[in-house]
Design goal:
This protein has 179 residues and is an alpha+beta fold. The protein has a single domain, classed as Chorismate lyase-like (Chorismate lyase, 3-Layer(aba) Sandwich), CATH 3.40.1410.10. It has 6 helices and 7 strands; from the N terminus they run αβααβββααβαββ. A 7-stranded antiparallel beta sheet has the order 1-5-6-7-4-3-2. The radius of gyration is 15 Å and the shape is globular.
C-alpha cells in the first residue's frame, strides 16, 4: 500500500480495526489525475455528506460497521447509504478526538445515527476540511461486497483532516463507490 505524503497515516487508520486482512490496493495520485465524477466528488474542502447528497440527489445515512474507543479518541468504520435504498455510496474510517467537541456534539457522534458532516454542520462547529491525499483504490473482497460489485473495479478516495475550532480533530479516509 503506497502511503500518502502528508496528513493522517492510512495504515494507522486501517490498523484501528484489526481482523482479517482485507485491505484494498491503494495508490496515491495527484488531484488532477482523478477523472469525473470522482474529481468533483473528492477534490474540495467540503464534507463528503454534502458532496454525495448533491451528486446523487438524495440524503445519505450512516451505518457503523465497527467502532473503537481509546481515551478521548473514538473511531468508526462505516458505510454511507442513499436514503430509501440499500445502495452504498461511500466507505469510510474516521477517528476523532472527542475532547475537542461540545458535550452535545459528542453525544450525537456516539449515537452513531447521523453522518459526521451533518452533525458538524447542524451544530455550527467552526471547521476546516483539509484533504491531504487523493487515492486510486482497487477494492478488496469486503469492499467488493459492500459496493455490490461482481469483481474489483477501480475507484477513488481521499484522506483528510477536519480542523474544529482551529485544532486538528478528525482524521478521515473516504472511498466512494465506483460509478
Amino acid at each position: 500500500m503506497t502511503m500518502p505524503s502528508s496528513g493522517p497515516d492510512l495504515n494507522a487508520l486501517f490498523a484501528i480495526f484489526p481482523g482479517p486482512v482485507d485491505l484494498p490496493a491503494v495508490e496515491e495520485v495527484p488531484a488532477e489525475a482523478l477523472p469525473e465524477p470522482y474529481h468533483r466528488l473528492l477534490v474540495h474542502e467540503h464534507h463528503m455528506t454534502v458532496a454525495l447528497e448533491a451528486h446523487h440527489g438524495k440524503p445519505v445515512y450512516v451505518r457503523v460497521l465497527e467502532r473503537h474507543r481509546q481515551g478521548s479518541w473514538y473511531a468508526r468504520k462505516s458505510l454511507l447509504f442513499l436514503v430509501g435504498t440499500e445502495r452504498v455510496v461511500q466507505f469510510g474510517i474516521m477517528r476523532i478526538n472527542l475532547d475537542l467537541c461540545s458535550p452535545q456534539v459528542r453525544r450525537t457522534i456516539l449515537d452513531e445515527s447521523t453522518p459526521l458532516g451533518r452533525i458538524l454542520i447542524r451544530h455550527n462547529v467552526l471547521r476546516r476540511i483539509e484533504p491531504t491525499a487523493f487515492l486510486r483504490v482497487t477494492p478488496g473482497p469486503a469492499m467488493i461486497k459492500w459496493f455490490s460489485l461482481d469483481s474489483p473495479r477501480p475507484t477513488y478516495g481521499r484522506i483528510a483532516l477536519i480542523h474544529c475550532d482551529h485544532k486538528p480533530a478528525v482524521e478521515l479516509l473516504e472511498i466512494v463507490t465506483p460509478e
